[in-house]
Each structure stands twice: as structure tokens, then as C-alpha cells.
Amino acid sequence: MTKTLSRFLYGGDYNPDQWTEETWPEDIKVFKKADLNSATINIFSWAVLEPREGVYDFSKLDKIVQELSDANFNIVMGTATAAMPAWMFKKYPDIARVDYQGRRHVFGQRHNFCPNSKNYQRLDSELVKKLAQHYADNPHIVVWHVNNEYGGNCYCGNCQNAFRDWLRNKYKTLGALNKAWNMNVWSHTIYDWDEIVVPNELGDAWGPESSETIVAGLSIDYLRFQSESLQNLFKMEKAVIKKYDPETPVTTNFHSLPNKMIDYQKWAQDQDIISYDSYPTYDAPAYKPAFLYDLMRSLKHQPFMLMESAPSQVNWQSYSPLKRPGQMAATELQAVAHGADTVQFFQLKQAVGGSEKFHSAIIAHSQRTDTRAFRELADLGQKLKEAGPTILGSKTKAKVAIVFDWSNFWSYEYVDGITQDLNYVDSILDYYRQFYERNIPTDIIGVDDDFSNYDLVVAPVLYMVKAGLAEKINSYVEKGGHFVTTYMSGMVDSTDNVYLGGYPGPLKDVTGIWVEESDAMVPGQKVRVKMDDKEYETSLMCDLIHPNKAKVLASYADEFYAGTAAITENDYGKGKAWYVGTKLGHQGLTQLFNHIVLETGVESLVCDSHKLEVTKRVTADGKKLYFVLNMSNEERELPNKFADYEDILTGEKAKSSMKGWDVQVLTK
Ligand code: GLA
Ligand code: ZN
Question: Can you list the positions of beta strands (E) in 260-353?
Fold first, then answer.
């Protein structure tokens, strides 16, 4: 049986091997002062652990494990396989990736191994075996952290060969492959498996990686294959660890906004617990990290680990402002509000050298604790010590789901035409914001998830509809479900070939419409949509809709298609389906969702939240925890509903007025 976390972790990435041993006890004292209880170690230590092939030296790691254990710290143990030692590149050049431009990498950077290099696979599994054998019995190790932030593609010969095998297995015959990729275009017909080449800039792609390609079917299959190749590496490390330590949970840290290269929904089943590195950019609206946390929680419908986050500024943005007073705690607790069961940082101690020396840390370059940043970190530590045991393991329940699907992510952004502005994440976020602002709990699910748990399923820009999906949607709506979809939906099958007979292809039935043409908006062009006697601006594209069976909710007010349908509603079985034929601005979408939310009966956690973010987690014994967050720097009033609640972060009565970045976790 895999164990679960037995306490709420407050800690983060610690790189003691960058420092002399005499400094470690002092570091640990400072961490304790901030109520830290965990450290993630050994993430990038391969060169120290294995100075020459087959020669292992764990003496330094043993010491730090001992010191952290003596201080009663929980340890998140890295496998150290994400950054390779110099000797390894010299001895086995094929471990390095060949990039999109076709260039073989040399020693340097990190995260640049070829997933299909047999040498990398062997060296990786041998190191992990040694580590697992050595540390399997240590009770302080509570999680194994495999590799680090998997991602990126390799276009080398090893990958090309493995890709050909993968395709042979998937398509069986060249006839099926040529058909799936529609290879009669531009004389692309393949007559032998070894004519298939990787879709990099020298081949069928152009422009920035995974944005433009001639044969999207080929490029999408390549992304699926690369995601799977990396996943196999994860599975290989996990299997080695489990052999020696079957009970400690194993994870790898997911990352980015979200990571385009990795299909996290496919990876989730192999994770014992999901973990996520969160680095919202300074200008990201608060609903964006909220969306990503909801996505992480929904991957397994379980609490997740906030594996990394910045205590204040990062080093890698063009501009990295400090987190304002109070902002650090609010941004960390936002993750907890959406399902995180840990608060962990990168990094615990600010490095003296390397590219991350100006990335914030618990112990800053000043090495002092009488600072604003440290006081805030210690204050959060105190609060989590109080509230962590209650929060740990509590669950989120959502009746609304938004569909986010990696094959759609890839295929949508490969589309050439009819506008260059297609952005999958932004399109999804417009819809997520509708629920965020209403404080309606929302899951972010994949196309293979069970829809029947939800009163409303929203699938914006569901461009790619694979076999069986339309039938699943139809049956969900027929039985009383509510479904929303938009322009650029139901266009292609799983290898990017268009469904003939009018858009939105297999979704025509449930939406009760068909789309004859779509007009692209050019810069400066303004088209309005008329809904409930009010006019709203729209952008990106306008579908010219035939509302066969559907009712028209809004029409265009401009252009030669003025007066024709822009948004429709269709009764289908016991449910309803809406089709939004254009990219409505926020106001218009809000007006539309006032109607849809009312129709579906899904409820907000609080009706008038005074621009506060409110989420709910429920503990195993049924205690309701309301996270009320002021994700702004302005003072806001607490909704009346919470007047007689208590804040478990402080043990005090709820404060009726919340200053900028204030957070309360309220219960009765
Ligand atoms: C990532 C990595 C860390 C560190 C941080 C800096 O999340 O996993 O090693 O580089 O970014 O923000
Ligand atoms: Zn490769």
C-alpha cells in the first residue's frame, strides 16, 4: 500500500551540496525558526553522487539526510537524474538531445537528455537503483521525487527509430498511416517505414517549435510519442524505486502554464501523488494560477503537492518584482485553497553562483532573519502549523467541469488559418474566469473523464473530437447534462482530418446547428453581438451559423451577417447544449453565463463575495473549510455569511474587513 502524507509539508528545494558542511546546522536552525518541516534534496546532485561511471559516493548525501532526520524533517528525495555530469556527455554523446533545429547538444544546462538513448536509460536506472537500495528504509523520506520538470522534445536518430516503431505499432500498415496523415498533399506519400523523418525545422515544421507544421497528423503523433517516451523514463525510475521501497509515494514535479509538451492527464495515472511547480508571472491575473491548481487537483481528483513556488522574486522573468507585503502568503495559500496539501519553495537557501543566485529563498544572501521577507515566511509557517493538520487530505467537490485536452492543445495551435491568434490556454481561461469570478468550484478534466459527475461541462474550442467522444457528449446531454462548446469545435478527427458535412462535425447533432463559414477578425475590426437587447464586442472569429433546431440567444449586429445567429441553445433529450460562435469579450460572456448558470442550477459558494476568491474543502469528518482570499492589494469586506465563523489560521473570530492579500480559512 502506498502511504499518504502524514503531515502538511512546509519546506522546499535545498541544495546543501553547494555549501560546506559546517553551514548546514545553522541553515537547519533558521528553517526551524520559520517552522519549516521538510526539505527536498538531491535534485541535481548526479555529478557529486557518481564522479565516474559506476563509482558512487553517497557520503555527503548521507550526512545531510542524517542532519535533517535528526531535526525531525521530512525529506522529499530527488533521484538526481535531470542534470547529467560532464563525463557522461564526453563518454556517451548520444545521451544529449538533438534540438528542433537539428543540433546535437553538448555538456551544459539540464533537462536535455534524449529519452530514447539506451545509454541514458542505463545510467539513469543504475543510479536510481543505488539510491533506492541505500535509502529505502529511511522513515524520514516521505516522497520520492523522480527527475525534475520533465519536458521538451528530442529529434535525434534514436528517437526517429523509436518513433518508426511506435508508428508501426499504432498504424500497422503504411496505407493506414498515409491515410491518417492525408499524405497525398504535397507528394508526401510514404512507401517505407524508414522514409519517415522527425518533424523538426529541417523537415515538415517551420516557425517556433510545435506551432507550425505541414502535416499536423505527423507532428501531433510526434508530440504524443515524445510525451510517452519521457513517461516511460518516469515509469522506469518508479519501478526501480518500488522494488526496494514499495510504500513511499513516488512523483515527478509537473510545471509550467501548463507544459505543452507533456500530456499530464496520461501521466497522472502513474503518479502516486500529483506535484506541481507554480510560478505565475508577475502580470498573471489571479484566476490563471487558480485554473492551474484546479487542473492539478483534477488529474487524480485528489489533493496535490505544491512542490515549488517562489518565496518572492524569481530570476528568470524579464522583470521580477518582489512579492508585496502579504502577497507571498496569499499566493501560497491560493494553491492550498484549490487542493494543495503542501507549501514548498524553490529555494531554501539563495545560491552564491549559477543562474539562480538572484532567485529568492528562505535564507537570503543577507543570511539574516530580521527581514520583512523572513518574518512573513515565519508567520506563514506558524499558521500552517496551526491549520495544516485540519487541512491535510480535505477534498474539493465540483459540479462544473471544463475540458482541457492535450491533443486539442497541440492540434489547435498547429492550425494554419484562419487567424494567427489561436491560443488554447487563453481560450479556456476566458471560460474558467466565469466560474472563478462566481466562486463556483470547477474541475478541469480530460476528454476521457466521466462527465456524469457534473451538472455542466464546458468544452471551449474542442477542435479535435476523437472517435467516440461525440457519442459520449450526446449521451451525457441526453440524460440531462448541460454542455457548452464554441467556435473551432468538432472540426477534426484524432489525426487532424476535417469532418465533412459542415462544422462542428460530430457535434452538429447535440448543438442543433451547422456552421457554413467562419470569418476572421482583422486588427481594428469591431463586430458586435446583440444579446438580451444589449450589445457586446467580440473578436477572433465569427461563425456563420444555421440554427437548425437550436434557439438563437444572440445575433451579430455588424457585417454582412448582421442579424444571423452568434450564440445558440439547443434542447437535447433531458439536457441542453449551447454553441458560442465567436470569441465574446468578458462582459458578453458574463451576460451569457448569467443565463447558463441559472439554467443549470449550479451554485456559487457565496453570492456576493465582494471580489474575494472563495473556495471550499471538506475534511474527512465533514468539516467545511472556506478559503477566503483577497488576491488584491485593496481592502475588501468579508461576506456576511461568514460573520460567525472562525479562522483556523489564527484561531480567532473571522475578521469582517480584509486588507490587501489577507487570507482566512473559515469554519464553524
Ligand atoms: C524550476 C526548477 C527549479 C528552479 C526553479 C526556479 O521550477 O524545477 O530547479 O530552477 O524553476 O524558478
Ligand atoms: Zn533523442
Answer: 275-278, 305-309, 342-346
d(CA 652, CA 338): 23
Q: Whose CA is nearest to atom 3 of ligand 1?
A: 346
Laid out side by side, the sheet with 624-629 consists of 613-618, 624-629, 663-667, 646-647, 652-653
pLDDT value for 346: 98
- Encode 206-253 in three state secondary structure: ECCCCCEECCHHHHHHHHHHHHHHHHHHHHHHHHHHHHHCCCCCEECE
Q: Does 149 sit in the ligand 1 pocket, CB within 6 Å? A: yes
* Average pLDDT of the chain to the nearest whole number: 97
Residue with CA at minimum distance from ligand 1 atom 4: 346
Give the pTM: 0.98
pLDDT at 258: 81
**Which pLDDT value is given to residue 207?**
87
The verdict on whether 478 is a catalytic residue reads no
Q: Is 145 in the pocket of ligand 1 (CB under 6 A)?
A: no
Work out the average pLDDT over 605-621.
95
Q: Could you tell me which residues are beta bridge partners of residue 515?
A: 503, 545
583 neighbors 538 (Cβ within 8 angstroms): yes
All three cell numbers of 496, joined, read 487532424
Is 149 tagged catalytic? yes
Q: Residue 598 forms beta bridges with which residues?
A: none
408 alpha carbon to ligand 2 midpoint, in Å?
Answer: 24
pLDDT digits (tens, 9 = 90+) for 252-306: 999 998 889 999 999 999 999 999 999 999 999 999 999 999 999 999 999 999 9
Nearest to 460 by CA among 580, 545, 371: 580
The span from the CA of 362 to the CA of 364, in Å, is 6
Local structure of 575: helix, strand or coil: strand
The closest of 157, 213, 151, 147 to 185, measured between CA atoms, is: 213
